[in-house]
Structures are given as structure tokens and as C-alpha cells.
Amino acid sequence: MTRKKHLCPEISVVIPVYNEAENLLPLYERLTTSLDALNRPYEIVFTNDGSKDESLNILKGFYQERPTQVRIVDFHGNYGQHMAIIAAFEKSRGDVVITLDADLQNPPEEIFKLLEKIKEGYDYVGSYRAHRQDTFFRTYVSKLINWFRETTTNIHMKDQGCMLRAYSRHIINQIVKSNEKSVFIPALAYTLALNPTEVEVKHCSRSAGKSKYNLYSLVRLNFDLITGFSLVPLQMFTLFGMIVSALSGILVAYLLSRRIILGPEVEGVFTLFAILFFLVSVVIMGIGIVGEYVGRIFQSLNQRPRFVIKETIEEEINDKS
Fold first, then answer.
1. 38: number of Cβ within 10 Å
2. What is the C-alpha to C-alpha distance for residues 137 and 147, in angstroms, rounded to an integer?
3. How do residues 223-236 score in pLDDT, each as one tens digit?
4. What do you get for the CA distance between the two ends of the chain, in Å?
5. Are the C-beta atoms of 164 and 98 separated by less than 8 Å?
6. Less Cβ crowding at N or C end of the chain, within 10 Å?
7. DSSP-assigned letter for residue 23
8. Using one digit for the tens of pLDDT, what is the confidence trace for 187-197?
9. What share of the chain is helix, strand, coil (3-state, %, to 5)?
10. Extended beta strands in 49-116, E state
11. How many other C-beta atoms lie within 10 A of the C-beta of residue 31?
12. By the 8 A CB rule, do 30 and 108 touch?
């Protein structure tokens, strides 16, 4: 439904939503209070990523309350957090676009810190969490992944898992045009930025519900990060394969010399089996690494849509002109 037209917003806040019914009302109240205090035109773009709870109905209530500031992108199914963000990027209108999770672990009250950096002339403002309120496992696995990414790519971020970030419009346009299906948005934005920076933000425990990222999702996400921005895994495996091949050659020469000098032996059979199993596992790991890159090529070449939008709930606005 289209009512009267309104001016374009300066700020777009993009929020992916998947089964977050318990968090949406406090998120909405705190976010709108923070944005109203800025005294700048803004919009909030929610992407409902196939929620099975009451999330969509709650979002529609927000739209009814603020039809000129709230927009809803409703997915046909569950396509994942990053695709939900991309869809909202496509719909966003602001000169500055801010991503925010719906779980309230990053307080909406911290948005002003990012906007201050944008005002200083930075075109991409990342963030890193102070006193992170996550489990021991997630915290230290995240640190390990951050270290691995830092050493294998040219992407320098203190905390790649924090989604509270601000992007200038030119970066958003380039991300949308990239049309990648397996993409890690903060890393891609960093490579596109002309003048990136980071700020420290508060971090809170999840107020309600459970994290939507299980172990597989986290592994999958980090595979997308590493294989999307670096060939180092392939290069490391190639180097490792060369070393293992050299050692295997030495072992074969040693066993052949014993055969010639000492004759047939049965000792060491289990050791040989252990070596064989190790080499087989190395080959399987290598096939998996190569498969990741081949899979990315396959996704790039097929013509399937990245996501399907069931409905967009919004009001029409005037262009800036």
C-alpha cells in the first residue's frame, strides 16, 4: 500500500530477523529512541529470514506504528544472515547503512559512535566487542579464526564476528553489484573501502532466546571467509603435500634398502598402516579444500537467485532530487 511520499533517509539501519520474537519489542523501542535522538531522517529495514515464530507479525506492528520509517523484507524461506543483510542493502536508501543484529548483544545506543567516525571521513566503520559476553568456546574459537584470517589475508579486523558496522553508500552499491552467493559481508566491505576504521563497542549477553548459529553454521561461515578472500589454504596444502611426498620417498627408499640388505620382514606392518591411514586422511582433507573452491565456482556460475522475496512492506518516498 502506498500513501503519501516522504523524503529519503540519511541513515538506514539493517536488521536480519530469524525467530527473534522475544527480542524485537525491546530492540525496536531502544533503537527508535536512539535514532530519534540523532535528529536525522532514518529508516529501519528488517529482513524476516523465514521466521517460524511471531516475528513477522510483530514487525508488521512496527510498520503500522511508523510506516514512513519501518520497512520489511519478507523472505520466502530461510537464506541465512548474510543473504538477509544483502536483501536489505538492496532496499536501503540511506547515505550511511548500519548493520545490527536483533539479539541486543550489540546495544543500539552505540550506533552514534559509528556515525561519528563516518562524519570524520571514514567510509567503513567496523567494531570490536569490549568484554565479550559469550561462552568460553565461542570466544576463543573466534580469536583463533581471527588470527588465522589475519595471517592468511590482507583483511585486518580486530573482531570479524561483530555485526554492528557502518557503511557508506558507495560500498553498499558495490556489495550489491558483486552478486556473490557465499559472501562474508564485513570482509568484502573492508576490501572495497577507501578509508576503513574500527571503534570499540559494548557487548551484552543475549537478552532472550538462543543463538541461531550452531557449530556447523560457524564453520560454514568461516569457510566462506577464508576461501572467498585467500588462496593460502590451497597453497599451504600444496606445500604440505610436497613435504609429505618427500618424506614418503625417503621412507620408500629406506624400506627398499632394508628389503635388499636384510630380505623379507614382517616387523613394522602396523607402523606402515598408520602411515598409510595418515596419508589417506591428508588426501581427503585436500579434496575437501579443493571442493570448497570448486563449490564457490559452481555457485558463481549457476543462475539460481540468491534469495526469494515473498513481500516487501514499505511506503513510497521521494528521491533526494
1. 13
2. 15
3. 666 666 666 777 77
4. 23
5. yes
6. C
7. H
8. 888 889 999 99
9. 50, 15, 35
10. 70-75, 96-99
11. 22
12. yes
CB 29 within 8 A of CB 114: no
Sheet strands side by side (includes 11-17): 196-202, 124-130, 165-168, 96-99, 11-17, 42-48, 70-75, 309-313
Residues 6+ apart with CB under 8 A from 115: 11, 38, 96, 98, 166
Distance of alpha carbon 204 from alpha carbon 4, whole angstroms: 39
Q: Measuring CA to CA, which residue among 112, 3, 117, 93 is closest to residue 44? A: 93
Runs of H (alpha helix) within 230-317: 232-262, 269-301
The kind and range of the H/E element at 313 are strand 309-313
189 phi/psi in degrees, rounded to 5? -60, -40
Q: 70-125 pLDDT, tens per residue?
A: 999 999 999 888 899 999 999 999 999 999 999 888 899 999 999 999 999 999 99
Q: What string of DSSP letters covers 29-48?
A: HHHHHHHHHHTS-EEEEEEE
The structure's pTM equals: 0.73
How large a percentage of the chain has pLDDT more than 90? 42
Binned at pLDDT 50, 70 and 90, residue 1 comes out as: very low
User: Which segments of 70-214 does DSSP mark as H helices, in order?
Assistant: 81-91, 111-119, 136-152, 169-178, 185-192
Give the pLDDT mean for 254-283.
71
Residue 305 identity (one-letter amino acid): P
Which of 66, 162, 54 lies closest to 107 in space, CA to CA?
162
C-alpha grid cell for residue 103? Answer: 539479539
CA 111/CA 130 separation, integer angstroms: 15
- Return the higher-pLDDT residue of 15 and 272: 15
Q: Is 262 exposed, middle or buried (0-12, 13-18, 19+ CB in 10 A)?
A: exposed
Q: How many CB atoms lie within 10 A of CB 221?
A: 18
